Structure formats: C-alpha cells, structure tokens
Amino acid sequence: MHIDVLSLFPEMFAGVLGASILKRAIDKGFISVALHNIRDYADNKHRQVDDYAFGGGTGLVMMPQPIFDCMAHVTPEGWRGRRIYLSPQGRPLSDARVRALAKEPALVLLCGHYEGVDQRVIDALVDEEISIGDYVLTGGELPAMVLIDAVARQIPGVLGNALGSQEESFAADLLEYPQYTRPADFRGRRVPEVLLSGHHAHIVKWRREQALQKTARVRPDLLARAVLSDEERALVANGKKSE
Predict the structure, then answer these.
(1) In angstroms, what is the C-alpha Rg of the chain?
(2) Whole-prediction pTM
(3) What is the pLDDT of residues 110-130, one digit of tens each?
(4) Is the Cβ–Cβ distance between 102 and 158 less than 8 Å?
(5) Residue 61 contacts residue 118 (beta carbons within 8 Å)
(6) How far is CA 52 from CA 9, 62, 75, 120, in A?
C-alpha cells in the first residue's frame, strides 16, 4: 500500500515512521509513505495557506488553492484509492474501518490545521472524514499517524505472525485477554495456573472468558455486536466464570 500525507508540518512524522514496526514495514516494502508540504503548492509569493473565514468568527481557515493543487499532484488521472480528511467531525475510526482501509491500493491523508479546511476541499476532494475521538487536537497530523499505524498492522506480512492482528482487542468486538510473561511468580503475584498447564484447550477457554469479562466491565457497548454463544451470554450476565 502507498500512503500520501498532505500536511503543513510533515516533519512531525519523522519519528513515527522511522522507528519500530512502521520503519520495518517501510524498509521491507510492505507500505510506502510520501510526505507533502501543502505550503509548497501555494501560488502566492508569501506561501500563504490560510485566511480569515467569510462571515466572521475566530481563527483561520486553510485556503482551497494549495490543497487542490497538492491533491492534483498526488492523485493524477487514473489514481485509485481513498482520500481521507482527518477531522473531529468525521466518522469515528473503528477496527472494522481500519481493516477495510487496509484493502485499498492507496490512501491520501489530508491533515487540517487552524479552524480546518475550506468546505470546497471537502466537497470536491475528500471521500470521507475520519475522527480518532470526540476531542479536538491542534491539527490532523497525530490522527494521521494513528491511522497509518493501525492500517499498516493489517497489511499481510507487517506483523510477521499472521494471527497477531486477529487476536488483538476489537478484532472480534472484544477486548484482549490479559497477557503474562516470566517470571511465573513476581513478588508474590503469580501467573494464573491455567497458563502454565500446557493444556491448549483450557488456555483458549480461559482467554475467551477473560476477554468477555473485561469487555463487559470496561466496554459493554462492544458486546451488543459481538458474536457470542448462549453460554457466553449467560457468563457475561452472571458476571462469573463458567464451570
């Protein structure tokens, strides 16, 4: 997958793209990311990219011309993919949406700033608006980093273990079960015996129960769309482990 990022502050992405899983994914060719400074496309001598809003109000709005020209450069005729504007007014990002976006051949991520972008940009150039939560950030750069990271993890080969992304939180509309590592006894706090038993079926059952219980306790809203057996629904309702 190729991802183009349109931003006024592309330098913000260096650390995120240059370390950990994203760096390995890029180095191995699973994804490619190109950063574009919207200011480079301004057609005025001062490289101005923002102006006051018609009708009054506080703050500045990003002008359409630099964004239109930048978008034309990264999405020439015949381009195939999805153009996304990171915005607090957008559709909340979910695991299901991440998985769908990971199947696209290419993405363009538009990072707004100030009071946002001219509405004509959204009407003409944006396929969808995406939000990472009901709060406001200084710009769209941090949400774009979140989206890149989440999507990259769904690209085959990026995580190495094909089952990795399937077992993580939200993959089945459940939060992930607790994880433990060595030592088995740390300052009197022991790892659950079932995880030391070597009995795979018992471990699978325990993990499923733990995921159900945590989801019911922390994110009960997720259970409404989770696929559960009658026994599992009873387990959640009773708030205790099944026998």
Answers:
(1) 22
(2) 0.88
(3) 999 989 999 999 999 999 999
(4) no
(5) yes
(6) 20, 9, 28, 15
